[in-house]
Amino acid sequence: MRRPWIKILSSLIALLALFTALQLTAAPAKATTTYQIATDSTFPPFEFANSQNKYVGIDIDLLHAIAKDQGFKVNIKPTSFNAATQGVQSGQMDGVIAGMSITKEREATFDFSKAYFMSGVVMAAKPNGKITKLSQLRGKRVAVKTGTSGAQYAQSIHKKYGFKIVTFDESNDMYQDVLTGNSAACFEDSPVMKYAIRQGTKLKIYTKPALSGPYGFAVKKGHNQKLLRMFNNGLADLKANGEYARITKHYLGAKGSSDTTSDRTFLGLLKQNKGALLNGFEETIWLTIVAIFFATLFGVIVGLMGVVPSKFFNGVSTTLIYIFRGLPLLVLALFIYTGIPSLTGQKIPAFIAGIVTLTFNEGAYIAAFVKGGIHAVDDGQMEAARSLGLPFGKAMRRVILPQGIRIMIPSFINQFIITLKDTSILSIIGIIELTQTGKIIIARNLEGFKVWTIVAIIYLIVITLLTWLSNWVQRRVRL
Amino acid sequence: MNTKIKVKVSHLIKTFGDNQVLKGINLEVHDNEVVVVIGPSGSGKSTFLRNLNRLEAPTSGAIVIDDMDIADPKTNINKVRENIGMVFQHFNLFSNLSVSENIMLAPVELQKKTKAEAAKQAKDLLAMVGLESKYDATVQSLSGGQQQRVAIARALAMNPDVMLFDEPTSALDPEMVGDVLEVMKQLAKQGMTMIVVTHEMGFAKEVADRVVFVDDGNIQEQGTPDEIFNHPKDPRLQNFLNKVLNV
Ligand SMILES: Nc1ncnc2c1ncn2[C@@H]1O[C@H](COP(=O)(O)OP(=O)(O)OP(=O)(O)O)[C@@H](O)[C@H]1O
Ligand SMILES: [Mg+2]
């Protein structure tokens, strides 16, 4: 008696599975000479977005010059340092160039090029002269950026000097922590710190470069050896023909590339970053729309599976809701983006990983209230429909769902707004949506407060518009 | 009385968990017969009725309606239900549909009637229950008595052979009860086979061919209204009648 209903459900699920599979395999086939290179989105002067929203910096310029010299192509993907290194380890990326120190530990899982830059860790603190030596750090907090050699250095000496380490994902947040006095000092690579100070960060370097170490370009151990060879050959060529010196001087010389002179008012910042903000905004809207579409599809199907007269489907529904509602969105995003490819060997573009993440997470919430909305319809309605001889599916479609949907509409609207906000979490896997755009702009100009204010206002405007729209829809739907 | 057996229930048992609610009911209902089921609250009257169209699945026993075994899971229950109308205590009109749409839904969906045919039928049925003017009304705008009459019209739209009523007037204000009972009497007069659970003893006396007294999950006594109301034998029936007739 319930066969047709189950058939429809199973074919829908099959379709969804097929679609996902297609998405996975549809990752663009690369021309043999284009390499996917991961980099940090915010590590000036090695990599950062300039005011035209183009990625520049010592690493970026070197890599482009080497690629040109050796005749291969690169597609540079800025993301967080952690996502970049994990991307290479999971096979999502062919190589990483991100001001990455060559260490014993890393050599266990990476093959490094010849060193292309020598750096060292310095301590920076407020210029008031209260903290000038490592020995003054006892009992204080020290800020570092995760995964950097500064963090490593802090780790190696924190017992000896008796300080507490606090870690940040972004350089700017780390500087801010020192500026506000939460942390007494920070450890940072000397070229990075010099660049930041030139950009107007009110910190001062007090120590000589320690742990002085080489930066290398890295590939996954045992993979992409040809790419590694080409990098080394190209580097040698650039050093010989003066190009290397030209690039490093451009960023580190006395008259380095810098935009401290530009207008730092709200309006000025908005004008300079109009293009970048607009792109980020578009990506956010796009992510939201696509995610809402698939999350609704997934949520409605899983929700309906929860109310059909089948113990099996009820169980599947409950389990899916339990899992995907239980997982933090951040964990789910990282799991899908870096976890799944390392299991299957299949690369997933960040955008698709983001959509899949939101589909499961938001979809689970949708499933829960779809189920709840249907249960909220009086049982008598279903009994009356069935007593007339209507099969379950028809009774559902003609009687129960129309009433249930009316109950669900406010929850749907709420969930759409949450989805819009949740897209910001996808910045963690390097999708350059509005939040990530904010981080990138701040990495360059270090105007955290003003830029976050602009970003927050943009979100609020969109959410206000969405709320108006949904109130209007709600009024139209009501009887 | 016509001797053709329309509904035959044999040793029907229904258990919820470890609560045996129906304990082996046997009952035959003939064509055109009106059977009124009475009994104390919780005795299993609703459960019995709901087993007849499988809104509850019988635990064991057989229910044969028009030669089709309802208790057999292989029976196409949707087809059988088209022939068994049911009227509920709380009306259960579809609140997303108008009065006429409530009546037309099943004929259009299941009998492949055209909209026009179904609309004509809905008008006729509404006239029969005295509500022609409510054709386009919303369910929410009707009184309880009106809703119940629409619910009867809705059930009749599928031209059922058997009608089941589960306390159709218990949720109504007293002044509405008469209209609904009037419609049911009319149906009985037209020869509809009816099984009616009710506390309306007046209706039972006037309309029933047979009255069945259910208590403790079993039929304790049955007979004509005269036998049941004027010469009850079972002490539990005597006790029950004392209570309901003397309130
Ligand atoms: N779905 C169910 N699950 C568990 N127990 C049930 C269910 N439906 C009915 N029962 C139990 O079965 C017994 C009989 O209930 P039923 O509704 O059939 O009585 P009734 O004779 O119709 O009473 P009333 O006159 O109050 O309507 C009660 O004890 C009730 O709690
Ligand atoms: Mg009852």
The number of distinct structural domains of chain A comes to: 3
Reported for the largest beta sheet of chain B, the result is: 6 strands, mixed
**Helix-strand topology string of chain B:** EEEHEEHEHHHEHEHEEHH
List bound small molecules. adenosine-5'-triphosphate, magnesium ion
* Assembly annotation: heterodimer
The overall pLDDT average of chain A reads 86
* Rg estimate of chain B, integer Å: 18 Å
How would you classify the helix and strand content of chain A by structural class? alpha/beta
Which of globular, elongated, flat, extended, rod-shaped describes the shape of chain A? elongated
Please, could you describe this protein's structure?
The complex is a heterodimer of chains A (about 475) and B (about 250). Chain A is of the alpha/beta class. Chain A has helices at about 5-25, 60-70, 80-90, 105, 150-160, 170-180, 190-200, 225-240, 245-250, 265-270, 275-305, 310-325, 330-345, 350-375, 380-385, 390-420, 435-445, 450-475; strands spanning about 35-40, 50, 55, 75-80, 95, 110, 115-125, 140-145, 165-170, 185-190, 205, 210-215, 220. Chain A has 3 domains: about 5-25 and about 270-479, MetI-like (MetI-like fold, Orthogonal Bundle), CATH 1.10.3720.10; about 35-115 and about 215-260, D-Maltodextrin-Binding Protein, domain 2 (3-Layer(aba) Sandwich), CATH 3.40.190; about 120-215, Periplasmic binding protein-like II (D-Maltodextrin-Binding Protein, domain 2, 3-Layer(aba) Sandwich). Chain A has 18 helices and 13 strands. In chain A, strands 7, 8, 9, 10, 11 and 12 form a 6-stranded mixed β-sheet that branches. In chain A, strands 4-1-5-13-6 form a 5-stranded mixed β-sheet. A two-stranded antiparallel ribbon of chain A has the order 2-3. In chain A, strand 2 (about 50) and strand 3 form a beta hairpin. The model of chain A is unreliable at about 20-30 (pLDDT under 50). Chain B has a domain at about 95-160. Chain B is built from 9 helices and 10 strands. In chain B, the strands form 2 sheets. In chain B, strands 6-7-8-3-9-10 form a 6-stranded mixed β-sheet, with helices on both faces. In chain B, strands 2-1-4-5 form a 4-stranded antiparallel β-sheet, with helices on one face. Chain B is globular, with a radius of gyration of 18 Å. The interface of A and B includes residues 378, 384, 391 and 398 of A. Chain A: Keywords: Cell membrane, Membrane, Signal, Transmembrane, Transmembrane helix, Transport. Chain A: This is Glutamine ABC transporter substrate-binding and permease protein. Chain A: It is a multi-pass membrane protein.
